[in-house]
Design a protein that fits this description.
With 423 residues, this protein is an alpha/beta fold. The protein folds into two domains: 8-129 and 302-368, D-Maltodextrin-Binding Protein, domain 2, CATH 3.40.190.10; 139-298 and 375-418, D-Maltodextrin-Binding Protein, domain 2 (3-Layer(aba) Sandwich). Helices cover 42% and strands 14% of the residues. It has helices at 8-13, 37-50, 64-76, 104-107, 116-121, 144-149, 158-174, 191-203, 221-231, 247-255, 267-272, 315-325, 328-338, 351-356, 360-368, 375-378, 382-397, 403-418; strands at residues 24-28, 54-58, 85-89, 123-124, 127-128, 131-137, 139-143, 181-184, 259-264, 283-286, 299-308, 341-342, 370-371. The strands form four sheets. Strands 3, 6, 11, 12 and 13 form a five-stranded mixed β-sheet that branches. A hairpin with a 2-residue loop joins strand 4 and strand 5. The model is unreliable at 1-19 (pLDDT under 50).
Length: 423
C-alpha cells in the first residue's frame, strides 16, 4: 500500500461490522468493459486483496434518466440483491433519500478531505447519504488572446463581462468577423438553464432559490436583477439562437472561435485545447463572475456521488468498497485513466496530477465556490422545482416577462409545489 492507502480493512475490522463472512457485492463501475476497464480492474484487485470479499460489476445505462428509472424500480421492490454500491447523480440524493443507507457514522472522519459544497449536497436532514465520487461545476471560459489584444483583464463581475464583451464583439466584427459574439451559454429550457439561473442568482446574493432548510427564497430584488441582467445579453452580446443552446451548441460556437466568453462545464476544456481545435492554446478558465462588487463567485455543482442501497444485503462489505473508491489513491487513478476531476481537495496540489494537468488549480478555485442545486432540500419534488425555475428563467430571457414578475410568480408556484413540506 502506498502513501494514500486507507488501511481500511484493519480499521473496520476493529469497528462497527463483523466481517467473518465473505460476501460478494454488486456495484456499478461505469465503463468496466470500455474506457475505464483498467480502473475497474484496479478497484477489483484492491477490494479482493484488502478485504475478504469479492465484487461483481453490473452494467447500467449511460443516460442519467434511464439509470434513475432502473434504480426507482429496484428500490420500489426493496430488492437487496440487485445492487449494493452505485453512483448517483448530484440531484438524486434528496429524491432517493429514503432508499439510501445512512453513512453518517461510517464517514464522519472524511468530511474535511472533500470540497464542502459537494459534501453538503449529500446531507439530507442532517444525515450523510453519499460521498462525492468526482466533481463537475460551471465555469467561465474566455479567449486569452483577445483579452490581451484589446488590453482587458478577465472579468471579475458580470458587469465587467458585459462591458468587455460589447467592446470586443464590436471590434472583432469591424475586422470582418460578422458572426462573432461576446458571450454564449445554455439558454434552452432544460436542466442546464436551471444551473445557469442558479449561478446568476446566487452570484448577486439572491439566494439558492430554495435554501438548504427548505425555505423558498427566490422572491427578492437581487434574484430579479440577476435574471434581468442575463436577459439583456440576448440579442446584444449573445445570439438570439442561444435560447436553443445546450452545452454542445455553446461549445461549438466558442471552439470555432466565434465567441469571447462561454459558460460551460469542465469537460469542454480539453476539447477546446485539442490538436484540431481552432482555439487551441488561446483558452482560459476562471470562476463564474460575481454579481457586482459586493456579489460572489457561484458555480452550480455537478458530478456524481457514491451511495449504498439501504436494501443491500451486504452493507458491511459495501462500506469497505465505498472507502476504497473514494480514497485518494482511487481518485488519482480515475483522474489519469478517465479524466474525472477529483472530489478530494488535496489532490489539486498533488505533483503528479499537476505535472499532467497544470490547468487543474483553476478548477480548484471553481469547485471551492460551487453551490448545490436545491435537490436535497426539495427531495422527490426537485424535478417539478427545476421545471418551474427553468420555465420562469426562459420567459425572462425571451422577453415574455420581467425578472421582478418572474421571481414573484415563481415563489407562488414553488409554494404550491411544496405544500406543507418538501417530501
Amino acid at each position: 500500500m502506498n502513501k494514500y492507502s486507507t488501511g481500511l480493512l484493519t480499521a473496520v475490522l476493529a469497528g462497527t461490522f463483523n466481517l467473518a463472512q465473505a460476501d460478494t457485492i454488486k456495484m456499478e463501475c461505469a465503463g468496466f468493459t470500455g474506457i475505464n476497464k483498467d480502473y475497474c480492474a484496479y478497484i477489483k484487485q484492491r477490494f479482493e486483496s484488502e478485504t475478504p470479499h469479492k465484487v461483481n460489476f453490473i452494467e447500467l445505462p449511460q443516460a442519467s434518466n434511464e439509470k434513475l428509472g432502473i434504480f426507482q424500480q429496484v428500490f420500489a421492490a426493496k430488492d437487496g440483491d440487485a445492487v449494493d454500491l452505485f453512483q448517483a447523480d448530484t440531484v438524486w440524493i434528496g429524491l432517493l433519500d429514503k432508499h439510501l443507507m445512512d453513512l453518517t457514522e461510517h464517514v464522519k472522519d472524511m468530511e474535511a478531505d472533500f470540497f464542502a459544497s459537494a459534501w453538503q449536497n449529500n446531507v439530507v436532514d442532517g444525515r450523510v447519504k453519499a460521498v462525492p465520487a468526482f466533481l463537475d461545476s460551471g465555469m467561465l471560459y474566455y479567449r486569452k488572446d483577445l483579452l490581451v489584444k484589446y488590453d482587458e483583464q478577465p472579468p471579475e463581475t458580470w458587469e465587467d463581462l458585459t462591458r468587455i464583451a460589447n467592446k470586443i464583439q464590436l471590434a472583432e466584427r469591424n475586422t470582418g468577423k460578422e458572426g462573432f459574439w461576446g458571450m454564449v451559454f445554455q439558454g434552452k429550457a432544460y436542466e442546464g438553464l436551471t444551473c445557469d439561473a442558479l449561478e446568476w442568482i446566487s452570484s448577486y446574493n439572491g439566494g439558492s432559490i430554495v435554501e438548504p432548510n427548505g425555505d423558498i427564497s427566490i422572491n427578492n430584488p437581487q434574484a430579479a436583477k440577476a435574471l434581468n441582467m442575463a436577459a439583456n445579453w440576448v440579442g446584444t452580446i449573445s445570439p438570439k439562437g442561444v435560447m436553443g443552446y445546450m452545452e454542445e451548441e455553446s461549445r461549438a460556437v466558442f471552439q470555432n472561435g466565434d465567441a469571447l466568453f462561454m459558460r460551460n462545464w469542465p469537460y469542454a476544456y480539453l476539447l477546446a485545447q485539442g490538436e484540431k481545435s481552432p482555439v487551441k492554446g488561446k483558452v482560459g478558465v476562471m470562476p463564474i463572475p460575481k454579481g457586482g462588487a459586493d456579489g460572489k463567485h457561484a458555480a452550480t455543482l455537478g458530478g456524481w456521488q457514491w451511495a449504498i442501497s439501504d436494501y443491500s444485503n451486504n452493507k458491511a462489505a459495501a462500506v469497505l468498497m465505498l472507502k476504497i473508491v473514494t480514497d485518494a489513491d482511487s481518485q488519482k487513478k480515475l483522474f489519469f485513466m478517465g479524466g474525472n476531476s477529483p472530489s478530494r481537495i488535496a489532490l489539486y496540489d498533488d505533483p503528479d496530477i499537476l505535472a499532467s494537468a497544470p490547468h487543474l488549480p483553476a478548477f480548484k478555485a471553481v469547485f471551492a465556490n460551487a453551490i448545490p442545486r436545491p435537490a436535497s432540500a426539495t427531495k422527490r419534488q426537485y424535478n417539478r422545482v427545476s421545471n418551474a425555475v427553468l420555465n420562469a428563467t426562459y420567459n425572462v430571457l425571451s422577453g415574455v416577462t420581467t425578472g421582478e414578475k418572474a421571481v414573484a410568480d415563481l415563489e407562488h408556484r414553488l409554494k404550491r409545489i411544496k405544500g406543507r413540506q418538501w417530501k
